[in-house]
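Aim 2 progress update. The chain analyzed this quarter is reproduced below.
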Amino acid sequence: MLLASLSLFALFARRAAAAVSPFVEPPAELFSPLIAKKVLATAEAFPSPAMYPQYTDRVEGKWNWVILDKWTTGFFPATLYAMHARTKLCHHSSVGDGDQWLALDARGHTGDLAHPQQHEHRARRRLSQKPGQPNCNFGGERVLRRPGGRFSEIVGCTRSWDTDDPTDFQVIIDNMMNLEICLMGRQLFFASEALTGNHTLRDMAISHADKTMANHIRPDGSSFHVVDYNSTTGVVIKQRTYQGYADNSTWSRGQEWGIYGFATMYKHTQKYDYIQTARRMSDYFLDNLPDDGVVPWDFNAPLDPPRPADSSAAMIAANGLLLLANRRPPSSTPLALRATPTLPSRLAWAPTWQSLLSNGTVNTPKQNTLTGMVYGMQSSVVLPAELLTNCLAGRRRLLFITAGNTLVEKGLASC
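Predicted structure tokens:
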């Protein structure tokens, strides 16, 4: 039942196929009027003092709300920003008003932010504001400086988790999603010179990506979830998992974080090793996707009992493959067309839930499966948008929205 509920609307074409695969229309749910209604309802339900939606219960799909210091609290504000982006692409009333989404983003989302991955969206929004606008300099500078405080010159990475043992320096594959904020100072350097002033964060991002290539990615393109370093020597202590099936298995969401992260690093640096790593990781993903097209929680988990699926991993994969397709000419079109089938089908769509999708896996070892998750929401909005504007050129609520936007921007879907 779980696998059926997450069946993908088409299977991937194999990378060995030389011909372009027939394009499969993305699910209509990516542009459902329910998206704006659900996002708005969640924004208007924010408690005071502010708490943030994280994941839902397994029965009614109602949000579990968490305090500001949880790592997921930035995804819903990013979802609001993704909805603002959608209004620029989809010119009809069902997506809401752009100014409304920005106002909701600013309201109640201005506290001190503990985790850099939470607020790339705020840096992007604040840095894109005109000089002199309220909170522009303050917000942008604070967010851009946040990742640097956790970087170790000895290890060459940013620390993911704090531990009781200060010599245990833990780095997770998820951090590849954080590096773009370190590169934004370069991307927007001329527009925000007063905020950045140097390339320190860019150098940190490159160092972190290089270390991740060396120590997280296996020769076959699969990945470890966690690498433990000795903070005083930089030596690798252990390569393991926290949310996957086993230390030598491949946790699917981590694999997708890597695809997206390395494709992003190539976009900003043009370093060939990054695009090659993203390709190897995407090849592993495509080659190990089950015949039924359902993205499992872990590619190496036993089939009996049935392993949980993860709709958030499917959304991240779709976004990562589309980004990769935009960076690997002349074969971009086939890869872009192969990305859309990763999107969860309408059977993962949850009209009565507060989240956009169901059947997400937060953490199988902790028995937290079959939920809706806030980090699938944004990708679902953005992906359709990107596919509208250029045929050749995702987290679940966030990723669902992101996915829709991307498809629109690339000319592969319409609102």
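The chain has two domains: 1-98+272-415, 115-240. Residues 115-240 form one domain. These observations will guide the mutagenesis experiments scheduled for the next reporting period.
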